[in-house]
Amino acid sequence: MEVTMIPGKGPSFPEPLREERDLEHLRDPAAVASELGYVFQAITLTRQKLAGRVPLIGFAGAPALQLFESHAGHLGSELFSKFALPYIRDVAKRVKAGLQEAGLAPVPMIIFAKDGHFAL
C-alpha cells in the first residue's frame, strides 16, 4: 500500500482498506522478497552490528496491530491521561471484542505514543 507523509498530520494512506474486497487490490505477497530485499539486508546488517547488545524493534504490517498516538509528547502526562489514553483503551477493547465476535484469534497490539515516555 502506498503511504504518504502529510505535514501536520503524519502518515496517510491515499487508498485505505475499508472493506474486505479492498484486499484484492493489494500486491501479490510472493513479490515481497524481490521488492523488499533491501529491507531484509538492512535488518540483517543492523542485527549483526548490534550483536545482541540492545533489542531491535521494527514495524511490520501483520499480524501485529499498531496504534500510533503521534502527539503524546505534546500533551504531557495529565492531558495524555485525560484526552488520549481513554480512547486508546477504547480502541484496544473494541478491537479485541470485534475479533472475538468474528471468531478470529486475538492479535498482538502495540501502542506507540510518540515521546510519551511518561505514560509507561
From TrEMBL:
<dbReference type="InterPro" id="IPR038071">
    <property type="entry name" value="UROD/MetE-like_sf"/>
</dbReference>
<dbReference type="GO" id="GO:0005829">
    <property type="term" value="C:cytosol"/>
</dbReference>
<dbReference type="Pfam" id="PF01208">
    <property type="entry name" value="URO-D"/>
</dbReference>
<dbReference type="GO" id="GO:0006783">
    <property type="term" value="P:heme biosynthetic process"/>
</dbReference>
<dbReference type="GO" id="GO:0004853">
    <property type="term" value="F:uroporphyrinogen decarboxylase activity"/>
</dbReference>
<protein>
    <submittedName>
        <fullName>Uroporphyrinogen decarboxylase</fullName>
    </submittedName>
</protein>
<feature type="domain" description="Uroporphyrinogen decarboxylase (URO-D)">
    <location>
        <begin position="1"/>
        <end position="64"/>
    </location>
</feature>
<dbReference type="InterPro" id="IPR000257">
    <property type="entry name" value="Uroporphyrinogen_deCOase"/>
</dbReference>
